């Protein structure tokens, strides 16, 4: 699991598999992790793909491995192979964002010298239509459909390769973005375009002037706050400044953010990594169950004077608590999560099953699983994992409305293929799955999960004081398999382990 979840490459593990079980898919996976650790991108990509094709892994884990493969292909600039993988595995589209798919297709097309076609892909990506009412020559009102291009959306693609913890190769993608903007702006002068030209020209100076960069950021922020701050982010990530200058840029970004923070929703704050704003982590019930099992195990150790080895037990809940204690993140539990945890804690049979392989005497286990004792442990967990207090007491209620339900239903329906596969997998584990229906298909997340989705959508749209990104800590495939799509559509992230959390904490 360390290799799978955290991509830890261990040469000794690879050697052991070579000598003892060379045909094991875990041998392939351990080789992939070692290649990735050594920045051998293409070898890592191909080994991850080989591992994904093994029958050892279920649908959810195969999609994770295919996603790792296509990301390494992008870093290796193997555009043809990446696009072929995407075409061969259509379900992979649910595991990566539409912008990443666009990035791959544009880079592939441009690398084949089809530059005009690559530019058109970008223009098509930001092409929309809308109906307008106009008066005709006879004075009658007619409805017409007009086509327009969202140039602001195209402008944000300039930063796309630099938004990731590991920057993606910028070329040939950025060249085509510039060409698409030029084509759309040919007969117009655009302030934002001039901001980007000013910034690029300044960054080419030796050395760049911090005051000039700040002026560009300030002027751009007057029009679109997040874009102005992005220039300061790009400057800090450029590697062209010494520590003293970096401190000046950081202070400038903090000051500019303080001026415009009410106009910058939490969904956009994920781009401001250098500010290190603590994210708000909404913790799902499955993570809290681990915390409850941990507390029960501690009480059993005290009662039986035995050390329990819960090797298969996940410790992500401890990481979350540790980061919260250090002030790196804020933790919060919506009412629906508190309710679910309370109800689950009453099902002693499921809790007992967690200790089926331990050597604790049944009577000792029964004494610890006393209703009053369990209720006390649940109260402790709620206190430890629900520290943030929303200023608006109606935050949860206001998140659940008709528009929210329609948007989430439409979003889930787009990924019906992946939820169909996921439902089959869940039903094999537990036939009593509580799925919801959309368009006649009962394959979608349960009501409680959809409520969490709606609450986080609402939080991400706000400008919450002192907070950065909105994250959901969960291991539920209903969230994790479409994690990048949630981020792209609603502006909040999904984390299921410490590696994913650290990527947000930068």
Structural write-up:
The protein has 506 residues and is α/β, with parallel strands linked by helices. It folds into 3 domains: 2-96, Alpha Horseshoe (Serine Threonine Protein Phosphatase 5, Tetratricopeptide repeat), CATH 1.25.40; 189-264, no CATH class; 273-506, no CATH class. It is 60% helix and 8% strand. It has 27 helices and 8 strands. The protein has helices at 2-6, 11-20, 25-37, 41-52, 59-75, 79-88, 98-111, 115-125, 151-156, 173-184, 191-203, 210-223, 225-236, 243-260, 285-304, 316-325, 335-345, 348-353, 362-368, 371-385, 395-399, 402-414, 416-429, 447-461, 477-480, 483-490, 498-505, and strands at 127-135, 141-149, 280-283, 330-332, 436-438, 441-444, 470-473, 493-495. It has a 4-stranded parallel sheet, with helices on both faces. Strands 1-2 form a two-stranded antiparallel sheet. Strands 5-6 form a two-stranded antiparallel ribbon. Strand 5 (436-438) and strand 6 form a beta hairpin. Helix 3 (25-37) packs antiparallel against helix 4 (41-52), helix 4 (41-52) runs antiparallel to helix 5 and helix 12 (210-223) packs parallel to helix 14. The longest helix is centred in the middle third of the chain and has 20 residues, at 285-304. The chain is globular, with a radius of gyration of 25 Å. 34% of the residues are buried.
């Amino acid at each position: 699991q360390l290799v799978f979840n955290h991509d830890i490459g261990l040469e000794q593990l690879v050697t052991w598999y070579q000598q003892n079980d060379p045909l094991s898919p875990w041998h392939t996976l351990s080789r992939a992790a070692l290649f990735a650790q050594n920045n051998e991108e293409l070898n890592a990509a191909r080994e991850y793909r080989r591992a994904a094709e093994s029958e050892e892994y279920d649908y959810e884990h195969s999609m994770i491995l295919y996603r790792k493969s296509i990301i390494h292909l992008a870093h290796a600039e193997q555009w043809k192979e990446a696009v072929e993988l995407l075409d061969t595995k259509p379900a992979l589209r649910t595991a990566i964002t539409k912008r990443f798919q666009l990035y791959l297709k544009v880079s592939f097309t441009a690398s084949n010298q089809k530059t005009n076609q690559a530019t058109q892909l970008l223009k098509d990506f930001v092409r929309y239509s809308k109906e307008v009412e106009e008066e005709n020559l006879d004075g009658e009102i007619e409805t017409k459909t007009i086509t327009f291009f969202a140039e602001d959306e195209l402008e944000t693609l300039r930063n796309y390769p630099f938004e990731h913890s590991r920057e993606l190769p910028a070329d040939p993608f950025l060249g085509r973005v510039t060409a698409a903007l030029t084509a759309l702006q040919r007969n117009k002068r655009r302030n934002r375009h001039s901001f980007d030209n000013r910034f690029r020209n300044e960054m080419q100076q030796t050395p760049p002037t911090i005051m000039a960069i700040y002026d560009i950021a300030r002027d751009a922020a007057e029009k679109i706050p997040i874009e102005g701050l992005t220039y300061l982010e790009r400057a800090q990530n450029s590697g062209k400044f010494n520590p003293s200058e970096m401190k000046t840029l950081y202070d400038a970004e903090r000051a500019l953010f303080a001026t415009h923070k009410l106009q910058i929703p939490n969904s956009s704050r994920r781009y401001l990594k250098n500010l290190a704003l603590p994210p708000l982590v909404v913790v799902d019930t499955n993570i809290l169950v681990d915390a409850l099992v941990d507390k029960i195990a501690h009480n059993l150790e005290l009662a039986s004077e035995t050390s329990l080895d819960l090797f298969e037990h996940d410790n992500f809940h401890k990481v979350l608590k540790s980061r919260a204690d250090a002030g790196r993140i804020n933790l919060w539990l919506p009412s629906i999560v508190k309710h679910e945890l309370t109800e689950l804690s009453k099902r002693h049979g499921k809790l007992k099953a967690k200790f089926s392989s331990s050597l604790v005497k049944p009577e000792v286990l029964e004494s610890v699983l006393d209703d009053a004792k369990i209720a006390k442990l649940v109260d402790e967990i709620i206190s430890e994992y629900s520290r943030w207090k929303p200023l608006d007491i109606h935050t949860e209620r206001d998140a659940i409305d008709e528009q929210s339900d329609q948007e989430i239903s439409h979003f889930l329906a787009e990924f019906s293929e992946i939820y169909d596969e996921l439902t089959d997998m869940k039903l094999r584990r537990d036939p009593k799955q509580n799925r919801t229906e959309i368009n006649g298909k009962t394959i979608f997340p349960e009501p409680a999960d959809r409520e969490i989705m709606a609450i986080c959508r609402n939080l991400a749209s706000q400008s919450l004081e002192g907070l950065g990104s909105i994250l959901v800590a969960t291991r539920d495939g209903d969230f994790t398999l479409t994690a990048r799509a949630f981020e792209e559509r609603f502006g909040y992230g999904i984390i299921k382990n410490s590696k994913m959390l650290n990527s947000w904490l930068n």
